[in-house]
Amino acid sequence: MLANGGGAIVNVASIYGLKPSDIGTAPYAASKFGVVGRHEMQTSRHSGMKRLGNAQETANVIVWLCSPDASYVNGAVLAVDGGGATRLY
After folding, report:
1. What is the three-state SS of the chain?
2. Structure pTM?
3. How far apart, in whole angstroms, are the C-alpha atoms of residue 79 and residue 54?
4. Burial 58-84 (b: 16+ CB within 10 A, else e)
5. In sequence order, which residues have a C-beta less than 8 Å from that of residue 36 and are 6 or more positions away?
6. Residue 85 half-sphere exposure toward CB, CA atoms < 13 A
7. pLDDT tens for residues 10-57?
8. First CA to last CA distance, the chain
9. How do residues 49-70 score in pLDDT, each as one tens digit?
10. Domain-by-domain residue ranges, the chain?
11. Given CA atoms 14, 18, 21, 26 in this order, what sign does their dihedral have?
């Protein structure tokens, strides 16, 4: 990356990197917390959108993060979870 003048590193975790986990998922949540630094076993009950997310929706965010349009984004945590991390539903 240094030789090419820059680049992007995208770490992918899950909503369990942002919120407490359900009972029985502590090892999984701990690994996600390790990526995010502060919990996606994503099911419809975890999403304010009442549906599962799909791989393309996550990929679209990663592509954007790697694009020049996101060149000033640094150190951000973007929850691509349909609202699950906020539980505002």
Report:
1. CCCCCCCCCCCCCCHHHCCCCCCCCHHHHHHHHHHHCCCCCCCHHHCCCCCCCCHHHHHHHHHHHCCHHHCCCCCCCCCCCCCCCCCCC
2. 0.56
3. 14
4. eeeeeeebeeeebeeeeeeeebbbbeb
5. 11, 13, 17, 18, 77
6. 19
7. 888 777 777 777 777 788 888 877 777 653 444 555 567 778 888 899
8. 41
9. 778 888 899 899 999 999 999 9
10. 15-70
11. positive
Q: What is the pLDDT of residue 62?
A: 92
Report how far Cα 27 is from the mean position of its chain's Cα atoms: 17
d(CA 19, CA 74): 21
Residue 88 corresponds to which tokens in the numbers above?
A: 């505002």
24-35 burial: b if 16+ Cβ within 10 Å, else e:
eeeebbeebbee
In the numeric block, the tokens 């009972």 are attached to: 23
